[in-house]
Amino acid sequence: MVISMEPNLKRSVILDHYQNPRHKSLTDDPSYITENMNNTSCIDEVNVQLKVEDGIVKDVRFDGEACAMCTSSASIMVETLIGKNIDEVKNILINYSHMIDEKEYDPDVLEQAVVYDDVYRQPNRKKCVLLPWWGIEKALEELEKNGR
User: The pTM is what?
Assistant: First the structure.
């Protein structure tokens, strides 16, 4: 099943996640991996946190100062990744990046994140919607490096 959204629904989903972001708060829990991400070409600066137990993403959190696109992207990312195993997360990350870069991708694995399928039309927004996802990539690298 290919998920396709009409433009008004896309805007509605993005606006909802911007106005009511999911998991927008950080924790001091040391079992979380925290990565700070910033976009030097705008105000976007977010911290993302990832908690993995037994190879499953148990929680993803974020906070920071960011535009509507970055904030909504982080919120959608949270909902997309929680409950997935590491291999599924890596597959989602690859497909999301490919979608943003106009490469071949599988929309079925992206769930609501497909709302950004036409971001390529606004190249200056690519970093906004990729920044939190890059934070998760860095957190996964840290997880693998430390054998957690």
Answer: 0.92
